User: Fold Sodium-independent sulfate anion transporter from Nicator chloris.
Amino acid sequence: LPGPAVPAMPGWRCPRPALPILRWLPRYSRAWLPLDVLAGLAVGLTAVPQALAYAELAGLPLQYGLYSSFMGCFVYCFLGTAKDVTLGPTAIMSLLVSSYAFHEPVYAVLLAFLSGCIQLAMGLLHLGFLLDFISCPVIKGFTSAASITISFNQIKNILGLQGIPRQFFLQVYEMLRRIGETRAGDAVLGLTCLATLAGLRAMKSRLPHAAPAEPLAVRISYLIVWISATARNALVVLFAGLVAYSFQVMGSQPFRLTGSIPQGLPALRPPPFSLAAPNGTVPFQSMVQDMGVGLAVVPLMGLLETMAIAKAFASQNGYRIDPDQELLALGVANVLGSFVSSYPITGSFGRTAVNAQSGVCTPAGGLVTGALVLLSLAYLTSLFYYIPKAALAAVIISAVVPMFDAGIFRTLWRVKRLDLVPLCGTFLLCFWEVQYGIVAGVLLSGILLLYSIARPPIKVSEGAVLLVQPGSSLHFPAVEHLRDAVCSRALAASPPRCVILDCGHVSSIDYTVVVGLAELLQELRRHGLSLAFCGLKDPVLQVLLSADLEGFQHFPSWEEAARCRGAELGGSRAEPFSSTAESTGLIQ
Assistant:
């Protein structure tokens, strides 16, 4: 296990075990304990206020944020393969839950259960490769749009406005129309909290490490500043709560408060498979139909977020993860979480960063975080009554603003402009509905991927013979493109030229390609021309030999093929390309 002051242990790189905790627990060092406890406390102080804020974002009673924040910590300690990752509610997942759970806890809990089942199945069937079909531009477009959407969704709480619709464009219109109804108390407090959070974040990013040679007072000062910046969410919420309580004691209340939160731990019970409604019971099948595409979007985005975070921190800190085990861990966490009224959870980048920066050595730090959340549920919920909604909104906005990546547009413009199509498609449609943006982005990426397969780069060099060089493997959509490239150039030349097909970059072909090549051989032969192959890799050569193509000829290199073609044609055509290759014979 890698960790600060602890060298990486080879055991962390073992093959996927049934229970990853058995990989590091027998080797657990007493020196790791204080670091794990400190990291767990730091993450817990971040997790509790964020849990309340994200439940508000998901449109659920605030206690559901806390219900969703402890099970993932415990499960991941036993099943996770990354020492830094923390599972729990996130801004992205809360936004998706608000779209598919209809602000109804029963739907949210069932969505967690079904998402966990899907994630478990993907882990058991080793289907994690499906996530590779969601390209980076799609992810960047989604997260950037989500950053703006979530921020605007919380501005209503900063301004103290009520009755604002959920749809983004209607939100913007209504907030601009009702800007005159802004509550001064909420606005001042919300902006103050935002400024404080931004200042503490900047302070932490610029805080140098205290050298061991520094005086004790200096090192203690560094520690105080680091703790304050790390636990900034908790400090800001605590400060705002004290201000609100002071006004309450004085007999006035200029803020909209969180209100009562039920005290105590959630009941342990199976997730609900029906919903009691005023006009009858909504059965399981109807609930599934209501959630619709959310049953695909929520588990996939949860997996994507977790895997991206796990890979990033594993690379940064020098250890390896097991992707399939990560899928299993997230699936089990969501399934078990649904038994304690959790809504879908995933890996949290912000809390994972706090965990890593705090020097966590093993996943055991999650036990401390989970215990802190449980203690908050058991003893502190009565104090949450006084937390202003503007303060929670500031916590959310502070968390999601860094997700907006303005530089990606400029980068793609320089690197590959075609990738701007799925990026912009996802970004713009997410403002309409999240699911439309994600689906559109995946479809656009798929179309671009298929286009590159159907139209591989083909380099044509003209000489006494025509040298054709496909730049990638050939699959059935590319057959006509290849035939057109060969025939249009070979037959249009004066006089018509024989063709050498250099397959040095072709690692695989399919049956349709074999049929197309057979037809190409016949067509060129009808015009008195020949087609020779060179540079065939063994798998491709075996396929073509097995097909027993009439007139099939293969040479080790294009120089050899050009020399032989030139010899057949005679005269100056014997050396159509500059070559120093020696003859090694003809393979037919």
